Each structure stands twice: as structure tokens, then as C-alpha cells.
Amino acid sequence: MCRFCLLLCLVLIFTGCANQQSERQPFFQPEQGLDVHGRKSWFDHLVETDPGQADCVVAKDYQQNPPLRIAVLPFADRNGGQYLIDGVPVVRRSTEERQKWAWTYANRLRRTVDGYLAQREFVLVPLPMVDAALADRGITDAEKLRAVPVAQFDRWLGADAVVYGEVVDYEAYYALLVAMWRVGARVRMVSTHDGHEIFSAVDRRYAVDTHPVLDPVDFGINSALALLQLRDVTLARAEDEVGREILLRLPTARRNIMALRRQALLGVRNLDLENGSPVSPLVPETVETPEEGAVDTPAAASQPAADLTQVRGSRR
Question: Which residue intervals of the chain are DSSP H helices?
Fold first, then answer.
């Protein structure tokens, strides 16, 4: 009887594997939970004891004229490069060391914002290119950066919009049985064509660890365990969460998706012409604009949209 059950289990396992291997998995399907995956719900805040929240404002004309090419400018650090626990600097740092750490803290959050933007329907100016362009023109601190007219970034970097940012919270807290990191950032996306604010958000994340106690022995052990929350990897997770929570609140720019597909299809057709290959009618003559909230599909991929240059020039 045992042998029969074992044989039956093996047959079911191999049958399931065979079915999975034989099933075709087509590309370009509607992606599920695209706008909410990774975004904290009230239940997540409750379970993780995280009172932080993100507040954002989106321009009313965002869907009509979304920016395509974006440059994330250097962030400023309001904490001055200090390593703070309970609001008190715990490491004595010289002026030079504070400047280096302020740049480090700010650039960590800048990279998370840039990384989540790069996963979206935008073309990002590489950060080293942004830094080189600014350094070459003597823009070496936040005050000089704010003094630059926003239209200059279009001429220097070819960007439709720039992202300004600052670190508003970057410190640790420890109270024996409770330890946490608090990380926060404020960002503003501004058009380089007319200077109007496209998107702004501020987000604070609390990476909290609590340990209940039942007796004095628990108190001593759990107080020591709470210190483990102040590890660097926990801080990195909080930094990543700040960028993710901010960018999840930036709506999908449907116009950019269509423009990028149009550009790709035109590139394929031009390549076929150069190689002397027959060109198939990839782009139909007429097309209807997809409805709001429509999901990206292969049918939508074959529809033409405004050229990239038209999208970039729409705000000039």
C-alpha cells in the first residue's frame, strides 16, 4: 500500500511538471498589480509598526504632456552628514568627513529614486553624466544648484524634466526594547520647458523592531537583540522603500509608452530598409487612443503614437 501511494505521488508530480513545461507562456500579457505591488497598505503599516506615509501632488496635465527624458539632480542632506542616534551625533566627524557622508547619504536616496524611475516609461540621463555636466560648470553645492535656471538643464542634458531632492530624515532610534531607522526624502519633478512642477512627494519610512518582555531575563536579551535592527542592511531596505513608495505614486505615462513603441517600430523598419529586407506593415495607418487604465498588450504595441521629438517638444 505504501509503495502504491509513493508511486501515485511520483506520477502526479511528474504529470504536473510535464504540464507546466508543455504550457506556452506568451509575452506581453497584462501585468497584474503593476501600480500597487510593493506599496504599503494600512495593514502593512500596522504589522510593521510603521507610522510613515507618502504625500504627493501630480500636475493636472501630466497625462497630456508627461516628460520623457528625465535627469535626477544631486540631492541635498539636511542632517549635515551626521550619524545620529536619538537625535544625538554618536561619531565625532571632521568637516571633511561630514561633507563626504552627507554626499553619501543623499546619493543613496538619489540612486533609489533614479533606479525606480529607470524601471518606468522614461529615459533617464545617467547619473555620472549629470554629475559631470554640473561639476564642469562649477555647480558643486545645493545653493548653486538652486540658482541655475531650470531651462538650462534642457540645454546641458537634453532633459524634459529634472528631479530635485533632499534628505529630510536619516537617523536611528534606540530605546532598549525598540530600535528603528527613520529615513525620509522630498522630491520635486520640474519641467525644463516652462518651469512648472510636474510631480512632488515627501515620504518617510520607519524600519521598526520591537521586543516584548515577560521577565528581567527577557529584558536584557531583547534589549541586545533590538540593536540588531540598526544593521546597515536594514538601513538599505528603508532607503529602497522610500524610493519605491514615492515612485509608485507617479501615474503611468501612457503617452510615453506609445511614443517609445513608435520609435522602436520605426527603427525596425529603417533597419529592414538598410538591409534590403522586405518591410512588413508594422504600423497601421489609423489607430485609436487606448482608454485610460488600459493595460499594455501586443495590440497596443503595434499602434503608432507621437514621435519622441514631438513628445519632447510639446512643452516648448
Answer: 2-22, 42-47, 95-118, 127-136, 142-147, 152-157, 216-226, 232-247, 254-274, 298-301, 308-313
Examine the fold and report which residue of 220, 251, 282 is the final residue of a domain before the chain moves on: 251
In the numeric block, which cell numbers belong to residue 117?
524611475
**157 and 108 both lie in a single domain:** yes
Nearest CA-CA partner of 67 in 188, 182, 181:
188
In Å, how far are 41, 115, 165, 234, 293 from 191, measured between CA atoms? Answer: 31, 20, 15, 35, 24
Domain count, the chain: 2
Q: Quick check: 182 and 230 in contact, CB under 8 A? A: no
Q: How far is it, in rounded angstroms, from Cα 303 to Cα 79?
A: 49
* Calpha distance 14→7 (Å, rounded): 11
pLDDT at position 107 is: 94
Same domain, 272 and 133: no
Q: What is the pLDDT of residues 82-116, one digit of tens each?
A: 888 888 888 888 889 989 999 999 999 999 999 99
* Residue 134 belongs to some domain of the structure: yes
Expressed as residue numbers, the domain containing 206 is 42-251
Element (H, E) at 56: strand 54-58
Cβ distance 184 to 204 under 8 Å?
A: yes
Cell of 118: 529607470
Which three three-digit cell numbers place residue 83?
A: 550619524
Mapped onto helix, strand or coil, the DSSP state of residue 48 is coil
Nearest to 182 by CA among 131, 112, 238, 118: 238
Do 98 and 241 share a structural domain?
yes
Contacts of 246 (CB under 8 A, 6+ apart): 54, 56, 113, 116, 185, 187, 201, 203
221 and 270 belong to one structural domain: no
Per-residue pLDDT at 70: 96
Q: How far apart are CA 170 and CA 77, in angstroms?
A: 9
Answer yes or no: do 74 and 218 share one domain.
Answer: yes
